[in-house]
Amino acid sequence: MIVGVPKEIKTAEHRVALTPVGARELTERGHRVLVEAGAGEGSTISDDEFRDQGAEIVADAADVFSSAEMIVKVKEPQDEEIDMFRSGQVLFTYLHLAAYPEMARRLRQRGIVAIAYETVQMPDRSLPLLAPMSEIAGRMATQAGAYFLEKAHGGRGILLGGVAGVTPAKVVVIGGGIAGSNAAVIAMGMQAEVIVLDNDINKLRNLDSLHQGRIVTVHSNRLNLERQVLSADLVIGTVLIPGASAPKLVTAEMVSSMRKGSVLVDVAIDQGGCFETSRETTHAEPTYTVDEVVHYAVGNIPGAVPHTSTYALTNATLRYATSLADKGVEQALIDHPELSPGVNLVDDMVCHDGVASSLGAEFTPVSEALARK
């Protein structure tokens, strides 16, 4: 198979979808790997490093899209990339279709098979290709929150961990999954007061047991959520429903009642955000204020640390990329059943029920869609 790796063009996105290690694995299996010139520069990976491991460097994205049978990316396709897809191609990337209905509509017209990293799901409901970026995003969320709590950056002027004789900041994390638990651990390490809310009591038990009460766990319901948010200095939202739009748990009314200069960090913004007042921002302009509350809602948080993120991502995706290249989509789904929920589109058919519901589209099971293709 010819595998194409274009340079990411989303604003301030410096990751690349494949490392030289990944190129080596694919080329040694007999596949061609086409990497757009400069694709790895943002992650401090040179073209020569790719060449040394068997990849071919091509001049531009058009060369990648016109030749490749499978396109491997990091972020959802941008407008100019969508126009370059050919019928029959496979796209393997983070898609977040529920948050980008216009992109979904256009991709459905291209006749491709689109497999989304974020909806590949194991039998235990864990998300193996979302997990590494969730770890990074969760850890960075606390860093960003601490930074924007500084007075010079619009915040209340609070040091996250306080000092002797002065109370620390109160950090409220909504969601006790991978992103939320990583955010909480970093906040705990910075000596903040940390509260995690979740409606899954087992997640709360695990956090409580592991950290021996240093992270306070609270069952998530409307009353508890409101009480904790209104008294917080920093709120980090990490709620995720695979494939579907994130629920708006923090309302505009709650935001208007928060402390002035407090900070909201919406890690769920890729899925539409879990704060009613959220709108996607970029690393170039990461924040805005609503009712004097600072909002940080960058759509590709791990893109700020592309070297770490690129290697973590390839560690997770490579086994599936090689299977897709070796055996094609249908056999790869048989060998790795967890890939099936990752298939979001087959031609114009929407094959993930959560995505279909969010888009208001008809749901077609993957097996049926591939049989009709």
Instruction: Please state how the strands of the largest beta sheet are arranged side by side.
Output: 3-2-1-4-5-6-14-15
- β-strand percent reads 15-25%
* Rg of Cα set: 21 Å
Helix/strand class: alpha/beta
Order of helices and strands: EHEHEHEHEHEHEHEHEHEHEEEHEEHH
CATH fold-level topology of the largest domain:
Rossmann fold
Number of strands: 15
What would the principal axes of the Cα set say about the shape?
Answer: globular
CATH class annotation of the largest domain = Alpha Beta
Average pLDDT level: 96
How many helices?
13
Share of helical residues? 25-40%
Report the sheet with the most strands, covering strand number, pairing sense and barrel closure: 8 strands, mixed
- The N- and C-terminal alpha carbons lie at a distance of 19 Å
Number of self-contained structural domains: 2
From the structure above, extract its key features:
373 residues; alpha/beta; Rossmann fold; 13 helices; 16% strand
How does this structure look, described?
The protein has 373 residues and is α/β, with parallel strands linked by helices. The chain has two domains: 193 residues, NAD(P)-binding Rossmann-like Domain (Rossmann fold); 174 residues, Rossmann fold (3-Layer(aba) Sandwich), CATH 3.40.50.720. Helix content is 36%, strand content 16%. The chain contains 13 helices and 15 strands. The model has no long low-confidence stretch (mean pLDDT 96).
